[in-house]
Amino acid sequence: MSAGRRPSSASVRPFGSVRAKTSLGATAVVAVALVAAGIAVLLSLRANLTGQADREADSAARDVALDIASRVPGRTSYRDLELPETDNHPVQVTTQDGRLLAMGEDLERISGTGVPAATVVPAPSAPPPGGPVDDHGDDSGNDDGDDDGEGGDDHGGRADPAVGEIGDITEHTSGTATVDGTAGDYRFATIAVTDGSGTTVVVHAGASLAARDTAVGTAAVAMLLGLPVLLLVVGGVTWLVTRRALRPVEGIRREMAAITASEDLSRRVPEPAAHDEVARLARTTNETLTALEAAVDRQRRFVADASHELRSPIASLRTQLEVGDAHPELLDVPGAVADTVRLQRLAADLLLLARLDAGERPGQSRLDLGALVREEVSQRTPDTIPVALDVGKGLEVAGSRGQLARVLGNLLDNAQRHARGSVRASVHRAADGRVVLAVTDDGAGVPVAERERIFERFVRLDEARGRDDGGAGLGLAIARDVAERHGGTLKATNSPKGGAHFELRLPPA
Q1: pTM exceeds 0.85 for this model
Q2: Which residue segment(s) compose the domain that 448 sits in?
Q3: What is d(CA 427, CA 219) in angstroms, rounded to the nearest whole number?
Q4: 102 and which of 78, 152, 281, 299 could share a cystine (Cβ 3.0–4.6 Å)?
Q5: Could you say which residues of the chain have pLDDT below 50?
């Protein structure tokens, strides 16, 4: 490809297309959403299964505590307790100061209960008659009967359960236990109980977390394996849907490229049958092509008409100069001057139209339209048909003085060209507040069918009229363009006397 050649649409990289960006974006959004949802599901599943393990630990702890609470006074050995299977529910029975009294069978090591020792110590002696012995050796003795049933150890600051009663679960902790050489994770529940002899002990019972870890791990693996597959499906579906949605856009692009290559502005892009954004884009594109085709046609006609209009005075001027060069006595100096003046005016009109077409904005200076009319009429060369004035005062507008003066001059020239004996110019304020400049003549008037056509460029209704008398047909076109640039309007009607009536309406300053 040469240095000055632009890359074609076919050379665009695939990942630079709208379809690829849309697919990648949708896949990324879905991936983030799925990851967030997966994490939430795993955390919820973990929390639910942990709660289930807590309830199993609570049940095991209460079963052991119930056995302890039902012990008859005088029995001080805890080795004959009926403890659950250690594999599922490792159990420790300890004193309130942490001495181990009993534990499950084959329990080798434990953590998370606060009593890591796995060696049973002798059971505490039975209390003397008259009341329970407080294991802490203090005399606080909070064993009154008005407790709320929320028993606990001294670490919790709660009263011990009454004789033969079970307290509430004081805490849940996570830890590990090694049973017959196999270690595992457990949730432990802690509960205090006072046996029949008045001795308060603490029961730690655990529930295995193997089911929780297995379920969470299985769910995580399933999500990790399913995530790529789901993302591929989402990306593929998005790619196909986007491809289908953008297919009309590609058709529009191809047709526009063909129009650009062929420079045939009569062609139009295909319009989808659907009533969506792409269909509206196609319709707007066709409307733009229609406007562009009309603008190009106007430009071509303008160039052709301008060339034709310039050819006549230039040819006439050249002929007169050649005759004058060969026969000085036959040189028509006034005719040559008239052709030069006409050529100068035509060039000025074309230059002004070019500036207006380029979007030149008029100035915003304030000016008295009535004073402008009086001044311009007074400076005109003596006319065969005088101009009568009816001009108000203090009627100010905003705009370009030179362009508005040009409009007035063109309207007066047109009126004097067609008037029989009178031309009248007036300035007044309309009922809607706008400032109105009206030019009226007593000529034949403008036919209704031609009242818009006369404002087109190079249009002259009287084709039998000589060019020197009729002008080039640019005056009214320039006047309307200037009026519209000033936010106003210029229309042609017939006056009550039968002649033409041109009315320029401008917003007040």
Answers
A1: no
A2: 365-506
A3: 88
A4: 78
A5: 1-12, 125-157, 463-469
